[in-house]
C-alpha cells in the first residue's frame, strides 16, 4: 500500500515499508524468514517433489513468495544464510519490458497470490482500497512527472534528469491508459 498507491504521498504505512525493506535485519547470521528472493533461493529437489509443481499463474512476480509459503505450509522452515554470495542484477529482465507492463504483471501476480493465500473475501476488501489507490498514484505520478520535467527543462537542468522525469510520466500514463480500467475490474 505504501509503495504503489496514493498512500505513499500521504505518508501512511511507512513503518510497514521499513519492515519490508528489512533495514534492521541481522544479515550476519542464519535466521528463519518468511521468504527469500528467488535469485538467491535454493531448495532440495526432494522437497520440491513433495510440495508439487510451482504455480504456473505466477510467472514473473510472487513465484518465490508462493514457493516459500508452500514450504512453510508443508511444515518446513525457510532460512536466510550469510554463508554464500551471489550477484543479482536487479531489474535486468523487467527493464526490457517497460515499467507500465512490469507493474501490470506485478499487480496480476499480487492478486493471484493474495486470492490463493487469503481467500476471495479478504482479496476483495484489499482490492477495494488497493486498486483505486494505484490508479490515483499513477495519475499523480503522471502529473508530477510532467510538471517536474517541465520545471527541470525550464531551469536548464541536467538533460538526463529531464529525460528521466518525462519517461516516468510517460510510463505512468501508459499504465493508466492500458491497464487502469482492467486493473479496477480484474
In short:
Helices cover 61% and strands 3% of the residues.
Can you offer a commentary on this structure?
The protein is mainly α. 61% of the residues lie in helices and 3% in strands. It has helices at residues 7-10, 14-21, 45-51, 63-73, 99-154, 159-185, and strands at residues 31-33, 78-80. It has a two-stranded antiparallel sheet. Helix 5 crosses helix 6 (159-185). The two termini are 18 Å apart.
Please render the helix and strand layout as text:
Layout: H1 7-10, H2 14-21, E1 31-33, H3 45-51, H4 63-73, E2 78-80, H5 99-154, H6 159-185
Antiparallel strand pairs: 1-2
Structural class: mainly alpha
The SSE order reads HHEHHEHH
Number of strands: 2
The proportion of residues in beta strands is: under 5%
What fraction, in percent, of the residue positions are helical? 55-70%
Mean pLDDT: 88
Radius of gyration: 19 Å
Q: What general form does the structure show? A: globular
The profile of the biggest β sheet is: 2 strands, antiparallel
> Which spans of ≥5 residues are poorly predicted at pLDDT below 50?
none
Could you name the key traits of this structure?
mainly alpha; 6 helices; 2 strands; globular
Amino acid at each position: 500500500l505504501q509503495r504503489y498507491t496514493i498512500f505513499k504521498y500521504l505518508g501512511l504505512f511507512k513503518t510497514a515499508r521499513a519492515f519490508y525493506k528489512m533495514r534492521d535485519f541481522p544479515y550476519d547470521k542464519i535466521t528463519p524468514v518468511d521468504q527469500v528472493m528467488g535469485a538467491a533461493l535454493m531448495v532440495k529437489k526432494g522437497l520440491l517433489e513433495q510440495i508439487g509443481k510451482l504455480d504456473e499463474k505466477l510467472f514473473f512476480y510472487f513465484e518465490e513468495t508462493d514457493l516459500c509459503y508452500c514450504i512453510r505450509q508443508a511444515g518446513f522452515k525457510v532460512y536466510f544464510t550469510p554463508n554464500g554470495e551471489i550477484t543479482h542484477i536487479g531489474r535486468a529482465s523487467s527493464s526490457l519490458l517497460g515499467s507500465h507492463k512490469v507493474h501490470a504483471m506485478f499487480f496480476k501476480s499480487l492478486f493471484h497470490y493474495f486470492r490463493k493465500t487469503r481467500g476471495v473475501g479478504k482479496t476483495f476488501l484489499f482490492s477495494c482500497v488497493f486498486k483505486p489507490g494505484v490508479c490515483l498514484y499513477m495519475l499523480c505520478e503522471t502529473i508530477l512527472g510532467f510538471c517536474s520535467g517541465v520545471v527541470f527543462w525550464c531551469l536548464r537542468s541536467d538533460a538526463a534528469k529531464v529525460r528521466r522525469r518525462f519517461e516516468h510520466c510517460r510510463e505512468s500514463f501508459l499504465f493508466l491508459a492500458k491497464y487502469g480500467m482492467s486493473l479496477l475490474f480484474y
